[in-house]
User: What shape does this take?
Amino acid sequence: MSVHGGPVVAGAALPRDVVVNPSLATWVGVGDDGAIEIRVGKVELGQGIVTALAQVAAEELDVPVSQLRMLPANTGTGPDEGLTAGSTSVADAGSALRVVCANVRALFVAAAARRWLVLPEEVTVVDGHLCTVAGDRCTTFGALAAAVDLRTPARADVTPKDPRTYRLVGSSAARLDLPDKVSGAARYIADLRLPGQLFGRVVRPPSPGARLITVDAEVVGSVAVDVVRDGSFLGVVGADEAVVVSAAERLRRAATWAEHDRLPDEDDLATFLTGGPHEAIPVVADEGPRMPAVRTLRARYTRPFLAHASIAPSCGVARWEPDGSVSIWSHTQGVHRLRDAVARALDLPSTTVTVQHVENAGCYGHNAADDAAFDAVLLARGTPGRPVQVQWSRRDELAWAPFGPAMVVDVEAGLGASGSVVSWSFDVWSQGHNSRPGYAGVPGLLAGAHLAGAPPLPAAADPPTRTGGGTVRNAVPVYDLPGRRITGHRLLDSPIRSSALRALGAHHNVFAIESFMDELAAAVGADPLEHRLRHLPDERARAVLTTAAEAADWGDPSPDGVARGIGLARYKDRGAYCAVVAEVEARTDIRVRRLTLAVDVGRVVNPDGVRMQIEGGAVQATSWTLKERVRFDRSRVTSDDWESYPILRFSEVPPVSVHVIDRPDRPSVGAGEAAQGPTAAALANAVAAAVGVRVRDLPLTPEAVVAAIEAAAP
Amino acid sequence: MPVTERVRLTVNGGVVEVTADPATPLLSVLRNQLGLMGSRFGCGMGLCGACFVQLDGAVVPSCDTPLRAAQGRTVRTVEGLSADGALHRVQQAILDGQAAQCGFCISGIVVRAAALLDEQPSPDAATVAAALDRNLCRCGAQRRIVAAVVAAARREP
Assistant: This one.
């Protein structure tokens, strides 16, 4: 039997999410059918979080996962757990669920003990059955539900299980959502068909900042649709989706807009990003005299804007109730944040807005989910009682969802006589990585900036440095380097909307740091692995690095044109450790032959889930790093379909092997954003090793390699 | 006003008659008139594969196929691949291999892979990957999916 209801642990504090949502009934209920209903504030983004959290709940309750019903996040009924972002879901929601479910289990055990006139210590819970130790009496959570009042705050003195006794947590539970997804069941938000539902489409401006001059609403003809216009916000609503889509297309062709050349030169983003004005973000400024350098190296690394490019366009559903309240269905990353932003945009009390999460295709950061929900709210206003579903077009998804920011890094290092690094200067320039709902004191919803008289959206902010930052995320190397000066520079004005894309600044910062580590190693004639280990006291970092290197046959000879590269980081300086070895073949084309990763996420909740997140992160980062670049001219985004914004295809995806180092005594941290930076760096280092010149500007296309070879020619 | 017509076609083994503008995308008819939500809308341009269906056995993007092109013909969607509650072997292999993340691309991939196995009973991984090059996956589940299709080929159909 596991340890429950033990003595008060000195200094034990409730997890933050439990402090915010103390009532057990917010988290757990028992359905009429006896299923235990679990409500979490974290949402399924395709990453398997709901399955991992079900494992945690089932573990603490001692019930099988199949006896749980995981309910979608809902502002009306469930806990507020902020955003599902930043690889914190397992840490935040997992630790909260542990405490909550341990409390719930203790209350049911106490109720069984009262009913049977035995001591709580004489009641066990096995596989969802509460029984006396003697085994002479048994009951279920369902049968006891009426005797337990969960409307009581969680207590800090109820101790969750000792992780050493876990049976479910740590096993590869099958994903709960996949049966629906392989069979083609209705599961995603675009599959919702609520009673009386209408369909809406928005006709977006052709370019950022464009203003609607005129539109002849008669072009939609006699079909049964309503045209909605407010300033430069233009949309159509009707009962037949196909009719609405073609009416929106006719409106788009009939509209005239005032456009301006406001976008920067896409071939010289470095000048744009370093031009300012900026907010300086000091990160590290080491004290003390700098050691003398015998050599100084410097380099500049750049990345372009990147698109989320999820396979489903964003979608939202909203219904105005006759009493003036609003119900919203959204694939947002934060139901409460969206609720508050919509309420603020409409000047309503937030209690009149309810948001429920519904899944969509994969979410890799702040995409257009919240914007689509607000579009639906605006288009549904004229039809109280009838929900309106708004789906974005592919073109709008690729052109109007926020982008992952373009970035520039300038790095300079001094090398001492022994070949060690004696000074390190690192400057990173970027637009902000956060324009989520509520940022910068505004609702931050796209359509809000298109309404009559509305101001434009302010420039993106950054998450606070103490929670990982945005521009400066992973700007601090994992190595022990003296004389560091590390500074971020966030651009305060830009016509291009940017926000959080998986790993935020870590993708580019780690690409730059780890590329430069290889350049330093080459400068002193050292092996890249040896050079890293020489500056690396952190044992967990050394473990992933050497594990990946060994698994990838680091140091073994490879054929002509084939080479390996290595990359390492600890995500957000306190998250998962990840090392990557990439093996590439670079001749006229760049082909990734294989990726080998080692990862340490602390205690592993679901080993296959971790592997899947790392594989996916590595493959997506390979796509970003080798192929992706948002294209634009001076007024319009031009990469608005899958031909102009190509992503990695099946035959280009390399085999990926993932080695998970389990640390049962360390807290669990997320895996979803650990691989991006190290993968980019490993690819760049492998390409450099294969072709003999360094490409410092992403993406690493064959054209970029040719340009680098030409630039290096004497 | 668009002209609506009665169009007859066979969907997943049953003859259906729908009344719609024959220019309506087949995907819209499947989802909104026939309630078959398994074919997903990804791009509307036939470039991502999320809406793939088999039309007389050939794999086509249903978002880019007008209803009139399906008149009198046989359409098979992801829902039509499983029979009597039993998943198609490709679906079962994807489930067994946990070869999906968000799953949005899976319907079209199942449809394409099932057609491949009809033509080639035991494809290798490179053949499967090449066959799926018109299906986009953004989560990075491609290698698991390829392995699942190769494994499916070894099962009894």
Observations:
- Chain B touches chain A through 58 residues (CB under 8 Å).
- Chain B has five helices and five strands.
- The longest helix of chain B spans residues 106-119.
